[in-house]
Design goal:
single chain; alpha+beta; 4-stranded mixed β-sheet; 3-stranded antiparallel β-sheet; 9 strands
Length: about 350
């Protein structure tokens, strides 16, 4: 409406770049203490918030993506060891299927954003198959969606989501179940499923629904399995980024404050939130799972941001929709990718 607030949480770096190109966001280089900011934030976080040399956003909260959640007692009952590689994970899934069990709990319903859950799967697979540079080329629209590389990523995910025996409730359940409820299948007795792929924030959902369960004992996660050993120390992160539209004293004071250790410490004291500010001490995280997630972020050799959030808004929306279509009919993969390729040519 042409009347933006002084400060707003932005939909993601992709939309942030569009707003910055339209000169709608204030350059924060002249607002923040950049010496302190460079000390507190890894270069990757600052690069993602910079457009044409101007810092136009501040990441105030982060999530670690590519985590696979499970209940230790469920795996112990089946004498299953946590997998390290993709092939090991698929072998475990086949073992469970042969025992008439269902490996995965997946739900991709999220209102107008239905499908985003699947983009996280595909992004983690892409990163671990082809590495950060090709991953960047992909979200910047430099790689055709119809390429063999992109298709192979969808087919890799299809090993799970295209096999009805792999997914609890079948395709219709996956399509109709909200992302914030899909994990419940791990907590039934006996379990309806054994694994659930979701970002670190799902921990707060689980704790709210099952307050008597102890994180780290009653539910745990393992890192997304290795596909190409060359990228075994790669992670995907998501985050909430704030931008400033109006240059006022109050807006300056607020954006300065939310980037500090003090402000971000409030986020991390509640399970499910991680701070991109590396000066926030691991000791203040509320439980061992949160601390483990923070350590993973700090030790990672390769860190990339959620690819769909880095895409243009048009491409991102099409990506979400394509995930839904793929779950509905995996055999239609070529047409789905051709439609995405048309959008890429328009959007870039």
């Amino acid at each position: 409406a042409g009347n933006p607030p002084d400060i707003a949480g932005l939909p993601g770096p992709g939309k942030m770049k569009e707003l910055a190109k339209e000169s709608r966001l204030i350059d924060l280089n002249n607002v923040l203490n950049m010496d302190q900011i460079k000390k507190d934030y890894a270069a990757g976080w600052l690069d993602m918030a910079t457009v044409d040399g101007k810092l136009v956003g501040v990441f105030i909260k982060a999530a670690l993506k590519g985590l696979v959640w499970y209940r230790p007692e469920n795996l112990e009952a089946e004498k299953i060891k946590v997998p390290v590689t993709w092939d090991q994970m698929i072998d475990i899934c086949e073992f469970l299927i042969n025992n008439n069990d269902t490996p995965w709990a997946i739900g991709i319903e999220s209102g107008a954003a239905s499908g985003w859950v699947g983009t996280d799967w595909l992004e983690n697979i892409f990163l671990r198959m082809y590495g950060p540079q090709m991953y960047k080329d992909w979200y910047e629209g430099k790689i055709p969606w119809t390429s063999n590389e992109v298709k192979s990523v969808w087919e890799k995910w299809g090993e799970i989501v295209a096999n009805p025996k792999m997914i609890y409730g079948g395709r219709q359940y996956v399509l109709s179940t909200n992302f914030g409820q899909a994990y419940e299948s791990l907590f039934t007795d006996p379990p309806n499923a054994y694994f659930h792929h979701q970002a670190s924030f799902i921990q707060s959902f689980i704790k709210d629904q099952y307050p008597d369960l102890k994180p780290g004992k009653d539910f745990l996660f393992f890192e997304f399995p290795v596909i190409n050993n060359k990228y075994k120390n790669a992670i995907e992160a998501g985050g909430d980024i704030f931008g400033m539209f109006n240059d006022t004293p109050q807006a300056k004071a607020f954006i300065q404050y939310i980037s500090t250790v003090e402000a971000q410490s409030y986020w991390v004291k509640e399970a499910g939130a991680l701070s991109p500010n590396r000066s926030v001490q691991i000791g203040i995280y509320p439980d061992e799972l949160s601390k483990a997630q923070a350590r993973i972020m700090k030790k990672a050799e390769i860190v990339v941001f959620d690819a769909s959030d880095m895409m243009s808004g048009q491409m991102n929306n099409a990506f979400w929709s394509a995930v839904v279509k793929f779950v509905e009919n995996p055999a239609d993969i070529d047409n789905i990718l051709s439609e995405l390729e048309k959008v890429r040519k328009e959007a870039y």
